């Protein structure tokens, strides 16, 4: 697995293919706090999926963090301007 620099923050990322055939960037180092199972399939492609209760993490998979959650540039872009309130925290409390 060869990491490629993120075009936004220049940190290394691994590009995986999800079960739906989409591309997903993950941080190259396994992270127990991550929510993406990553493995190399029989053809050598790097694959990823979201573990669930029905299909938990398998022995050949490692948990990685999606890069969108740790990209420095992306998190800076998502910062709200002064005087703007985020409703995300309110929605989280409401759904508990």
Features:
single chain; 96 residues; alpha+beta; 6-stranded mixed beta sheet; 26% strand; globular
Protein model, in words:
- The chain is an alpha+beta fold and 96 residues long.
- The protein has one domain.
- 14% of the residues lie in helices and 26% in strands.
- It is built from 2 helices and 6 strands.
- The protein has helices spanning 72-77, 88-94; strands at residues 4-5, 12-18, 23-26, 36-40, 46-49, 62-64.
- Strands 1, 2, 3, 4, 5 and 6 form a 6-stranded mixed β-sheet that branches.
- The longest helix has 7 residues, at 88-94.
- The model has no long low-confidence stretch (mean pLDDT 87).
How helical, in percent, are the residues? 10-25%
How many beta-strand runs? 6
Order of helices and strands: EEEEEEHH
Q: Proportion of β residues?
A: 25-35%
Return Rg in Å: 16 Å
**What's the overall average pLDDT, rounded?**
87
Protein structure class: alpha+beta
DSSP helix count?
2
Number of domains: 1
- Measure the end-to-end span: 39 Å
């Amino acid at each position: 697995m060869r990491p490629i620099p993120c075009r936004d923050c220049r940190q290394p990322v691994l590009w995986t293919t999800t079960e739906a055939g989409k591309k997903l960037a993950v941080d190259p180092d396994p992270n127990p706090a991550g929510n993406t199972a990553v493995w190399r399939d029989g053809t050598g492609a790097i694959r990823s999926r979201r573990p669930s209760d029905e299909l938990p993490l398998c022995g050949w998979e490692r948990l990685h963090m999606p890069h969108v959650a740790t990209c420095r540039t992306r998190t800076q872009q998502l910062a709200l301007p002064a005087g703007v309130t985020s409703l995300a925290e309110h929605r989280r409390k409401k759904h508990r």
